Every structure is written in structure tokens, then in C-alpha cells.
Amino acid sequence: MTGLPWDASYHDGPAPWDIGRPQPAIVRVASERGFAGAVLDAGCGTGENALHVASLGLSVLGVDVAETALTIAREKARDRGIDVEFAVADAFQLDRLGRRFQTVLDCGLFHTFDRDERTRYVASLASVTGHNGTVYVLCFSDEGPDTGPHPISQEDLRAAFNPSNGWHVASIEPDRVQTRYHADGAPAWFVTIKRI
Ligand SMILES: C[S@@+](CC[C@H](N)C(=O)[O-])C[C@H]1O[C@@H](n2cnc3c(N)ncnc32)[C@H](O)[C@@H]1O
After folding, report:
1. Helix, strand, coil in percent for the chain, rounding step 5
2. Concatenated DSSP letters of 94-108
3. pLDDT tens across 53-64, in order?
4. Which of 9, 64, 117, 157 is the most buried (most CB within 10 A)?
């Protein structure tokens, strides 16, 4: 699911997840000072979440495999006068960035991966998340009516992130993820994970 298929989803107008503003869950956590240090937005798309966090004065790198999305993200940053970095990178090979982050945001990426991909992705996250760093995952949940297209269970999350691979799931809270085709968003989990 990398490369051309993802880029193509940005060719003909906004993709279903591309709501043109940051996700309310991310705005809330940012207002609670949940972002600290260097921040990575993995699978940043056209950058609304990364731009919001960067607008608060944090150092933010957004990465994605879709070059078209990154071009749009850079245009927004320029138009809004926000200092933020966007780069092409594969979430399975984050070690290639050669950087460490204190906070990592995953908004809608984790839930696109199958079980084997999640294992590889979480190992990749471990390679760039500093000791005691925080990973936030906002993903579709499997609870409630009108679930999104890739529902994730709490068990899926705890299987992917666990003490044996260097993670502690601090909390899994019910939330909403806004899309262009749900009037009031879809059921989601907002997950806080600490690197141990
Ligand atoms: C559902 S979209 C969410 C985009 C953005 N986070 C948002 O909230 O609007 C998932 C994003 O992950 C990107 N993506 C998929 N696989 C990836 C990979 N292996 N490495 C980096 N980005 C990836 C896609 O190109 C897409 O932009």
C-alpha cells in the first residue's frame, strides 16, 4: 500500500480523510500541551495536523509516501507562514531519517496496515522514538455504529504495542475521527503509547 496508490488518492480533489482542518482530537491534545520536543507526524497527508502543532511553536517533521500530498502540505505552510518540514519517507523505514522524536503522531495510518505490517511499522516507530517518548494513534475503532473502513480493536492495539517490544499502552480512549463522508465523524480510539 505504498507509493503510487496512495499518491493517486490526492490527484482529484480532497481524499475522504482530508478534511481541510486538523482533527479535533489532535487540537484538544495540543491544547493540553500533549506535544513536546521534536514531533514526527507519520503519514501526514496534506499536513493539517502537523501544521497545527507547528503553529504552536514546536519543531515538526511530517512524512508521507505521497509526494502530491506533501506538495500540497508545503503550499499550505508557505501560505500560512508556518515553519514546518515535510519529507518523503516510508513509515516502515523511519530509521533512515536518522533522527529521534519525543512525540510521534499517527493520524489514520496505523489502521491502514494489516497485522504483519503493524509489526514492522511498530519496530520502525521504535527506531525513531526517544526513551520515554510518546506515540499518539488516532484510528478507526471497532465499537459503535457506522464504524470506519478499517476498524481496529483494543486487542489489536495492545498486540502491536506491548512491553516485549518496548512499549506501554498508557490509555485507549473512545473518540471520533472526522471524515468527509461522516456527518459527525466515525468511532475512533485515541491511543497514548509510551516508549519504555
Ligand atoms: C488515511 S491517510 C491520513 C493522512 C493524514 N494523517 C490525515 O489525517 O489527513 C493515510 C496517509 O498515510 C500515508 N501512507 C500510507 N502508507 C505509508 C507509508 N508506508 N509510509 C508513509 N506514509 C504512508 C498515505 O499516503 C496517506 O497520506
Report:
1. 35, 30, 40
2. GGGG---EEEEEEES
3. 999 999 999 999
4. 64
Grid coordinates representing 92 are 516502515
Residue that has been written with the C-alpha cell 516502515 in this structure: 92
Report the run of H or E that residue 190 belongs to, with start and end. Answer: strand 186-195
Phi first, then psi, for residue 30 (nearest 5°) are -65, -40
Pocket residue to mutate for ligand 1, from 53, 68, 105, 109, most atoms within 8 A of Cβ: 109
Instruction: Name the phi and psi angles at 165, rounded to 5.
Output: -115, 20
User: What is the DSSP secondary-structure string of 123-145?
Assistant: HHHHTTEEEEEEEEEEEEBSSSS
8 alpha carbon, distance to own chain's centre:
19
Amino acid found at 117: E
Pocket of ligand 1 (CB under 6 A): 1-2, 6, 17-18, 43-45, 49, 63-66, 69, 90-92, 107-109, 112
pLDDT in tens, 73-120: 999 999 999 999 999 999 999 999 999 999 999 999 999 999 999 999
Report how far ligand 1's centroid is from the alpha carbon of 70 (Å): 11
